[in-house]
## 1
Amino acid sequence: MQIRYAVAGKPIQHSLSPVLAVLTATHLKQAGLEVQLEEINLLESDDVTSPMAWAWVKKNRQRTDLSNRLYGVPSTPSSHSKLHRVASTVMSEVKTADSSYVPHGETLFHRAEERIKIRRGERESWISLTSPLKHLLSTRSGVHPIDDSLENGAVNQLRWDGKNWYCAGTDGHGLVAIARHFGFDFELTGVESPLLCMVGGGGSARSCATAWSNAGGSIWSIEGRRPLDKRGPWVQNLVSGDQVVDNIGMRLFVDFDTKPGVLESNRTTDCDLHLLSSYNSKEVGLIVEPTESGLQLDARWLLVAQHLEAWARIFSPEAAHLLPGLGLTMTRLHAMESALRAD
């Protein structure tokens, strides 16, 4: 399976998705899946048609190649080879997850009922979308959704198989996977149900609100730059600020109004998990950091979780049972970043 992979959005130079794509492909290749990332690109665009045009053609018109301070220009042979070489080394050295990354055991992304066989092209193009592209596709775009991300304006994954476009939203599924990984119990109901304390109403926020409500959790939408739509499928799970005080379930706070590359939020609340939504490719301190009320998680957790969900749901669902777990992938990502800095 020959894959051309790209990350598209604006800004995009900070993205670690190419590193994750190589790590995941290397893992699956060692597990026996014939997958080859023959091309990796960073596509800076505020128009979704530009990255889609990249996917249609084998040879693109000349464009400005973007560079990441960690891995260079992924579209060049030297950086491409470097990513694969370092990933192979990390794979051979990192066999288990850091113990602090698996507090309640490993989280896998295999769901037997979702192992569907999909049509494969000889060469496919996969695109991960970031801000501001997630809401630009509509039900009239000619793209086949595998979930409700298209109608919710929360598309962050595209797959072109040579004949058809498919899309999915994996931000929300990734958020729920993280919550479960750190002990949130979505079987609890009423005032004991898990509470998502969320700032923002953009594509990522809508995806997370949908997945969280579908899992059975409650949502406190905190006012931000853009309010969460009150007509979405999450509306029945919304609680007001007055009701929050009565909720005794575990709480996760995330602020989607922070700018890309900005590592702090100016909003906060007491919570069991404080999940940062933004990261950059500079050296990170603690991936899991204790706070007075619980834990603060680096935004790489959300990146890794939604990326693994993308492979499990739209990129390669037939091989979901071969995917590495959340804790192991986090461990490998941290190790690969360190190796790339030292290389």
Note: The mean pLDDT is 91.
## 2
Amino acid sequence: MSGIHQFLPMLAKGDGVGNNARAMAKRLAELGIPSRFYADLDKAGEASGGHLDYAKAAEPGDILLYHVATSSPMTTYLARRSEPLGVVYQNITPPEYFAPYDARAAAVQKRAQGEVETLAERALLAMTPSAYNAEDLHAAGYREVAEFPIIFDPADFLGPSSPRVAEVLAGLRTKGFANWLFVGRLVPNKAQERLIMALHAHREAYGDTAVLHLVGRPSYPGYVAALHGLAEDLGVGGRVNFVMGVSEEELAAFYRGSDLFVSASEHEGFCMPIVEALFHGLPVMAYDAGAVPETLGIGGVHLSDRDPAKMAGWAELLASDPELRSRLRRLGREQLTRVAPTATIPAFDRAIGRLIELAGSPLAPNFEARSSIVTETREILERLSEQDEEEPA
């Protein structure tokens, strides 16, 4: 039976690209469209050549959907296939961010940019989570682009949290420390050094009253070493908590036990951690770069620059002003409705319908089928709003 089959460099639990692909597959199944996964890297990051398995299962009427995330041999393979092709583009971080730390990584990113351009002529439609990304696609020559935020299942955010991490964060609060949180890979474009500088400025202005938790996998040893060195040089080494890899339960505890979410990232194609922070009711302040203005919207504080003293001032206000925290929580919930599945699933349906139309495919999706993710999202957002009303300002 023909379907819309998804190709992606790696399908790993907890990975943003993989989570998006799984949510798409769930909705496609509800529409009556089969969707198999073909991944080229296993969970350990080892090459597996999974895309080559597709030829054995290909059916007339198939449509292929490629999730662009990094350089991959899938690009050449899909460029040579005859099936109609759609592209899902989450963004390729420019190579210049990596060049000072890892020349090979910079070369991979450069190659990935070229691969995005390679598929422009082949792709009937590109899907992307932000207008910022859409500019890349139009510049690369894509003819038609559909924009809608990354699809996520809010039920994923409601799981149990780690009692150990919760106890540590609560203990810090008891001692008078505010817990600052950033979630994302330790990579140069996310500019964690700016957060360390802001923490130092906060200490100079307000005393030793904050801890910065940097939660994310390290990718480049040179950059991680530079972050550690900076923290030590500024005298805040003991107040920067490098958490290099967490379980789902530990991540949930960090979101639930922190006082604010901070970001100084220079390049984001969407920034899913901002959505996660809004979901957990955290005040958010983020540098207005890349797709961050779109994702954060009315839900938080937009920083026009990354002056450490200004960032420190905002962080102090967000951690200590109950009225401001309450107001931002309400605005954050409102922003969630704009990026949640209640908005993204209908947009995804329209994009899939357009892709099928452009492909001239015999697939006949049932767009009247109810989305389980949308139903769950409405219920969850209603409960969160009720909880917010019950909580004191």
Note: The radius of gyration is 21 Å.
